[in-house]
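Possible regression after last week's pipeline update?

I re-ran a chain I had predicted before the update to compare outputs. Posting the input and the new output here so someone can diff against the archived version. Not blocking, just want to make sure nothing changed silently.
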Amino acid sequence: MKQFAVVGLGRFGVSLAKELYALGHDVFAIDLNEERIQHIAPHVTSAVQADACDLAALKALGISNVDILFVTLARDISASLLITLNAVELGIPEIYAKAYSDAHAKILRKLGVTKVYMPEIETGQRIARELSHADLLELIELDPENEIAEMRSPMQWENKTIDQLGVRRKYGVTILLMRSAEHLIVSPTPQQIIYPNSKLLVLGKKKQIQKLQEQ
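New output (post-update):
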């Protein structure tokens, strides 16, 4: 179980805080808005009305003891950066932050943020890719470079082995699982035949997955 601090209780922050708490973690929620604090209080370990831009206020709350602090104030860029600086000053091991733009994200990374999220942009890109490729069913991002794709097996792959298709050689991806009407095969071997109308779970870098979709 980890200790999280979520600073900023907009829709994204509330959803994040509630889910982390539901997963069994200690969650400390911070926001300037008293109504938001009252709303989230039953769903987290502790909810405090405070100005996270004030370093002394954060110190008084004992926030330096958390494992991960998440800054969700993306649209208020100045507040986002100041809170991030405070978190760095407090020596919090991992700092995650939501960014409003590429420039905002770049500055956050320069400040030492562990990971930057741009959910609106990332969601838009993912949906666009799913709509552009009929065989792509779902994308799961693992980190900024790698993802898992659930996709329908291309017709030209049917009744050929993974080795014959040269999946790793040509595309640099790994088939983790294959599901057909009658079969469920986990970690298929290179000799495994791709059954007609199968669904594949494929692991690879984003560029490799895109190349696979375009073949």
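Follow-up from reviewer: compared with the archived run. Residues 3-117 form a domain with the Rossmann fold fold (CATH 3.40.50.720). Marking as no regression found.
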